[in-house]
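TICKET: design request
STATUS: open
ATTACHED STRUCTURE:
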């Protein structure tokens, strides 16, 4: 009996030790709230807390970009169409023929061209009657007056001392009015019509532009002058240098005028 008790007691001691080895040292609640150790914190992925607020990128102030500067571009205006040219039927009627050509350049009614020789004679007499000195025939003042009276005006006579300024003035007037310009040629002895031009820059957009070519109608074509040179073909595009061989400053002694010496234009004016 003593041996049996002794064995039972020993078995109970062993069982008690086994149970003690299987029991956790802390409670479940404590284990659930335990904070990670420093080592665990060091090896955890570096993620932002779920409640972190994103910071907006810094706004960089901007300034308005300057508007691009307009650059002059090639520009051209040409009123001429086939059939607009009219020759002068006598060596005196260049002004009258120029009036007929001016009408043809601007007429878009379909009423037909002015080409009749009888009409040219009548226009010459009208221009001569309005000229300041009829002994010299029809001069630029009579030319401008008739253009105005027959419905193509108003026109006026201007004298410009500088050649480049004269070309710019003529081109600008054509752009503004859509009508041709009269050129007083050969130092006041002859009449041409400026029917178009080419330039670098539109005169309507740029105060300063350069005229690179002038389109002309010489009613004396194809004869020309032994002194001043041949007549260009109708609708010829002359460089300013070519035009300058025949478009020169008027001689004041050619006919009386209060205008100063310069390059004479029979210039279309705005309707006002």
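STATUS: resolved
RESOLUTION: sequence designed for all positions
ATTACHED SEQUENCE:
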């Amino acid at each position: 009996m003593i041996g049996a008790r002794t064995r039972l007691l020993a078995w109970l001691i062993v069982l008690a030790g086994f149970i003690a080895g299987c029991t956790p040292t802390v409670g479940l609640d404590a284990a659930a709230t335990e904070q990670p150790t420093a080592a665990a914190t060091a090896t955890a992925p570096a993620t932002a807390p779920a409640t972190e607020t994103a910071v907006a990128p810094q706004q960089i102030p901007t300034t308005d970009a300057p508007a691009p500067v307009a650059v002059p571009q090639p520009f051209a205006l040409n009123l001429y169409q086939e059939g607009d040219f009219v020759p002068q039927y006598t060596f005196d009627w260049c002004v009258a023929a120029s009036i007929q050509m001016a009408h043809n350049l601007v007429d878009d009614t379909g009423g037909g061209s002015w080409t009749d020789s009888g009409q040219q004679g009548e226009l010459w007499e009208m221009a001569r009657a309005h000229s300041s000195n009829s002994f010299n025939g029809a001069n630029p003042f009579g030319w401008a007056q008739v253009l105005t009276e027959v419905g193509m005006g108003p026109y006026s006579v201007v004298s410009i001392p500088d050649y480049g300024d004269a070309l710019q003035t003529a081109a600008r007037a054509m752009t503004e009015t859509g009508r041709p310009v009269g050129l007083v040629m050969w130092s006041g002895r002859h009449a041409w019509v400026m029917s178009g031009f080419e330039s670098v820059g539109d005169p309507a957009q740029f105060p300063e532009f350069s005229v690179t070519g002038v389109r002309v109608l010489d009613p004396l074509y194809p004869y020309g002058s032994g002194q001043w040179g041949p007549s260009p073909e109708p609708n010829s595009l002359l460089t300013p240098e070519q035009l300058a061989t025949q478009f020169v400053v008027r001689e004041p002694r050619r006919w009386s005028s209060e205008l100063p010496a310069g390059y004479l234009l029979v210039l279309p004016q705005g309707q006002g």
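CLOSING REMARK: The helical segments are 2-22, 28-33, 38-43, 94-106, 117-129, 140-152, 163-177, 240-243. Residues 2-22 form the longest helix (21 residues).
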